[in-house]
Amino acid sequence: MAGQPDASAAGTIDIGGDLTVNRMGFGAMRITGQGIWGPPANREQAQAVLRRAVELGVNFIDTADSYGPEVSEELIADTLYPYPGDLVIATKGGLVRPGPGRWQPDGRPEHLREACEGSLRRLKLDQIPLYQLHRPDPKVPYAESVGALTELKNEGKIRHIGVSNVTEGQLREAQRLTPVVSVQNRYNLADRSSEAIVDLCDQEAIVFLPWAPVQDADRLPPVLTAARHHGVSIHQIALAWLLTRSAQILPIPGSGSPEHVAENIAATSIQLSAAEATAMLDVAG
């Protein structure tokens, strides 16, 4: 793992058949303030984080209108616009923020339209490459929410549609209405409740974006053993395992410092043995 890390070491993945990105992305939730609320405590550092990610080969950034709210998208545009030609920015709509650490679903079609158009303005884009429905709203029929994104896609405001925090049934319902190119669910070594969804994405060439990708990895003995063996951090092992788990997984770890960004991207060069990967898969989540 000598030299400067590069996200391209993980190989590439196709999104929707016409967007190709390196298979280590960046999640831009934590470049905001505490509680994912308001501006970051250190704006210059947040911008340095974004620049460092792109410098090290990241060309997929995941954000949402609810991060801040609006702060993450504005920072991305202020820092990186005009964007590199290969940079794919994915954002999400469907959650509103009553306050710090608080999240409420709003899947009404009129809200999703407003959210998408706001994201277009903040990100300075004519079309969002990947727009994801952030969470199903139990008060709104799921087909109505997905239908709103389909309309926006037909109008050219969205290139590809993804879904997030879904069951297999909800994914299938969305697929009956429109092509779905990505799923973003919680998934990591310690929480594999979306295991069946990962397998489904593998079978159908759907990109799987795991959120909370490294959480609780430090309580799993095989991870600790592998970290010692490779001389790397526990979080790096957790990310390396995700890359090994499925070719359809595109990790999007977040970070608050340029140094940590580099550490995450260095995980692309870790080669886990088959025995190590199997031991981690088999451990109880």
Fold topology:
Layout (H helix, E strand, L loop, with lengths): L11 E4 L3 E4 L3 E2 L15 H13 L4 E3 L8 H10 L7 E6 L1 E2 L7 E2 L3 H15 L4 E6 L8 H13 L3 E7 L3 H10 L4 E5 L8 H10 L2 E5 L9 H10 L3 H12 L12 H9 L7 H9 L3
Parallel strand pairs: 3-4, 4-5, 5-8, 8-9, 9-10, 10-11
Antiparallel strand pairs: 1-2, 6-7
Task: Give an overview in words.
The chain is of the alpha/beta class and 285 residues long. The protein has a single domain (16-219, 250-256), classed as TIM Barrel (Alpha-Beta Barrel). It has helices at 43-55, 71-80, 109-123, 142-154, 168-177, 195-204, 221-230, 234-245, 258-266, 274-282, and strands at 12-15, 19-22, 26-27, 60-62, 88-93, 95-96, 104-105, 128-133, 158-164, 182-186, 207-211. The protein is globular, with a radius of gyration of 18 Å. The model has no long low-confidence stretch (mean pLDDT 96).
What is the level-2 CATH architecture name? Alpha-Beta Barrel
How many helical stretches? Answer: 10
CATH fold call = TIM Barrel
Strand content: 15-25%
Jot down its keywords.
285 residues; alpha/beta; TIM Barrel; 7-stranded parallel beta sheet; two-stranded antiparallel ribbon; 10 helices; 11 strands; 16% strand; globular
In a few lines, what is going on in this structure?
The chain is of the alpha/beta class and 285 residues long. It has ten helices and eleven strands.
